[in-house]
């Protein structure tokens, strides 16, 4: 992503702060955790345990995992619980172990995997939280890592809302031998990956102890990321200080308030609005394509959807 300058602007150091400069208390309350979910507990149980570990008011996860599934489970804390919802539509990646129900040659397995990519049809499984109706999902890639007998290990990158369990079942039916998902691990949600500050519940417990009992906040800052991290998969618009409080009050973003923006914005895209210090202000919908926004000198360019920054952080300059 490249930022394009619409109008040069400076930010006043007396208002707001860079995410990395927040106090540890604010860092926690506006933080997200790239948690390595263990097999066994539900995603909601993980939420509850994180809330108790940190003595927080509320927590929320981005993209539910079944109890037996392990891997990346982003958790939002306090203010960031609403921000974590932006990850629900983010693309996902999994590593799956599929077991075939009968013997079949490896060549046939590899051939059918090539067919099950791009747009596919799926019906959610019986035990799911959504209505069971046929829908289309996009498979970005499905790469076989290893085949050993009836076991097939593969990595799959897919659109949000794709059921890997159903994917395995459909592969088995297409091969004529049947198949089921034996094990599943999520390796990516948006910008959250196994290589990006993945922490366990024990890591978090230890980090909180070092801060609370030994006044050492460094480990907690490593375990908890700024809530802005949860928006890295979305296009961005950076606004002038004078526009921040208006957006915080729910106003839509006009052309005059824009300083810079991502070069890939298209009409109807969901984007996120940032201050010049890199603080998340709100999410919004683009009303025009990039070229029209860059050329506009007045008028509403983005409809504000959800506001994440409190009013009063920046001065009111919009009356």
Give the helix/strand layout.
Blueprint: E1 3-5, H1 24-29, E2 31-37, H2 43-54, E3 59-61, E4 70-77, H3 80-83, E5 92-100, H4 106-115, E6 118-122, E7 135-148, E8 151-158, H5 164-175, E9 179-189, E10 192-193, H6 201-214, H7 218-223, E11 224-226, E12 235-239, H8 241-248, E13 253-254, E14 258-262, E15 270-274, E16 280-286, H9 290-295, E17 300-307
Parallel strand pairs: 4-9, 12-15
Antiparallel strand pairs: 1-14, 2-4, 2-11, 3-4, 5-8, 5-9, 6-7, 7-8, 9-10, 12-14, 13-17, 15-16, 16-17
Helix pairs in contact: 2-6
The quaternary state of the protein chains shown equals single chain
Helix content: 10-25%
**Main beta sheet strand tally, sense and closure:** 10 strands, mixed
The total count of helices amounts to 9
User: What is the third-level CATH name, the topology of the domain at 92-189?
Assistant: Alpha-Beta Plaits
CATH architecture of the domain at 92-189: 2-Layer Sandwich
How would you characterize this protein structure?
The protein contains 9 helices and 17 strands. The protein has 319 residues and is of the alpha+beta class. The strands form 2 sheets. Strands 2, 3, 4, 5, 6, 7, 8, 9, 10 and 11 form a 10-stranded mixed beta sheet that branches. Strands 1-14-12-15-16-17-13 form a 7-stranded mixed beta sheet. Helix 2 packs parallel to helix 6. Belongs to the pseudouridine synthase TruB family. Type 2 subfamily. Its EC number is 5.4.99.25.
Task: List its traits.
alpha+beta; seven-stranded mixed sheet; ten-stranded mixed sheet; Archaeosine Trna-guanine Transglycosylase, Chain: A, domain 4; single chain; 319 residues; Alpha-Beta Plaits; 24% helix; globular
């Amino acid at each position: 992503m490249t930022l394009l300058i619409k109008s040069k602007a400076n930010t006043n150091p007396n208002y707001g702060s860079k995410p990395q400069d927040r106090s540890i208390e604010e860092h926690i309350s506006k933080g997200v955790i790239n948690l390595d979910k263990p097999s066994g507990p539900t995603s909601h149980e993980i939420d509850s345990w994180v809330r108790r570990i940190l003595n927080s008011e509320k927590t929320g996860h981005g993209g539910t995992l079944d109890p037996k599934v392990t891997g990346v489970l982003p958790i939002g804390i306090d203010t960031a619980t609403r921000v974590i919802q932006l990850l629900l539509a983010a693309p996902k990646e999994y590593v799956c172990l599929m077991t075939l129900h009968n013997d079949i040659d490896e060549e046939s397995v590899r051939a059918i995997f090539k067919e099950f990519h791009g747009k596919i049809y799926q019906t959610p499984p019986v035990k799911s939280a959504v209505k069971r109706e046929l829908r289309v999902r996009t498979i970005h890639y499905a790469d076989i890592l290893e085949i050993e007998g009836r076991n097939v290990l593969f990595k799959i990158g897919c659109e949000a809302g794709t059921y890997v369990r159903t994917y395995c079942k459909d592969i088995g039916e297409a091969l004529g031998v049947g198949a089921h998902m034996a094990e599943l691990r999520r390796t990516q949600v948006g910008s959250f990956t196994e290589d990006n500050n993945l922490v366990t519940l024990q890591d978090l417990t230890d980090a909180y102890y070092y801060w609370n009992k030994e006044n050492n906040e460094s480990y907690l800052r490593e375990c908890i990321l700024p809530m802005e991290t949860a928006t890295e998969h979305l296009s961005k618009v950076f606004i002038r200080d004078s526009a921040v409080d208006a957006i915080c009050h729910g106003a839509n973003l006009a052309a005059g308030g824009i300083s810079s923006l991502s070069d890939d914005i298209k009409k109807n895209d969901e984007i996120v609005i940032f201050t010049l210090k890199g603080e998340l202000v709100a999410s919004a919908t683009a009303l025009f394509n990039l070229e029209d926004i860059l050329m506009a000198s007045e008028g509403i360019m983005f409809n504000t959807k959800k506001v994440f920054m409190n009013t009063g952080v920046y001065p009111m300059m919009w009356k």
